[in-house]
Amino acid sequence: MNQPIAKTKAILIDLIHPRMLARHSLERLEELENLVNTYGGIVIVKKYQKRFAPHPKTYIGTGKVKELAQEGKELGAKLLIVNDALKPRQSYDIQEVIGKSGLQVWDRLDLILKIFAKHASTTEARLEIELASLRHMGPRIFGMGMELSRQAGGIGTVGVGETNIEIMKRHLKEKERKIKEKLEKYQRVRATQRQSRKRQGLKTIAIVGYTNAGKTTLLNVLTGRQEYAANELFATLDTRVGQLYLPDRQESVLLSDTIGFIKHLPPELLNAFASTLSEAVDADALLHVIDVADPHVLQQIQVVEDILIRLKIQNTPRLLVFNKADQISRVQLNELLARFSHHLPHVVVSCQSRQGLSDLIQRLESLIQN
Fold first, then answer.
1. Which of 189, 193, 248, 290 keeps 20 to 30 A from 12, CA to CA?
2. What's this model's pTM, rounded to 2 decimal places?
3. Does residue 191 sit within a domain?
């Protein structure tokens, strides 16, 4: 009988303002814990540190790092994950304090990149993740150079470390250039495909939304495709395209599924996924899929709105799709809808029960009537 694979144990730490309530701080860690679960790990400790500002060297303070290192050693943890983006020097200094505890320090972006790497199924997606990883890890060669300098013998050998830093910089720069060249080929192919669609008069509608809102499931039920959809964060990284027939217009439109958004999504990730997100940027209309059953639904809607602004597509015709309506009460749903009754056109659906899909198709026909 096969033994189950042991999951990587992780300790989560967040930095909060001293006046923040404890329950709010733990809510901040909920999504990070979901990310760890998606990665395949298991959270054994969740903690927060109250500070008015991050510690310049170790973010959460040297004493707290030592405390977590000891706890991690006793519990057999392998990861210490900070719920923010660490500066290269902070990451290096935390790792120095952790020492021989067996822990490795990751920040929030490290974790997201690991999940992306796990879920990438096409060459293009893998290249995009590799590019984002290079941009994130590149500045951390400071610590690598310090380590090389120290290993070289101490006094009088600082130049060895500096030389190695320059070598690594050049290597990473060249590697980034080659990845960009490969991605440009995919971008040219996508541009050609979009031009072909326009010549055929095919309209394109991009499905956007917070990760795990049900975007891929919606694509499947509307187009009959059988793409992988799961109840986990970032189940989809690659762009998928399917056709939807609109009976009143007696024509088909193309629906494209895109990577899910998440709060604190750093610019380097948006930039790295430029070719995938180009389907949304160049779309004739957007379907913003919303998980109404998520307790943080209002925050998630705002995150998506902010990212659409960053992509400069906030003025693209848009339809709000309130998904998973069968998972909340009518009172809760009405309260949510009241907030958007004068905002954007919207429709209520459940992809699982197929409730509201005919109404969605009618709304789509109105959305692209021009």
1. 290
2. 0.78
3. no
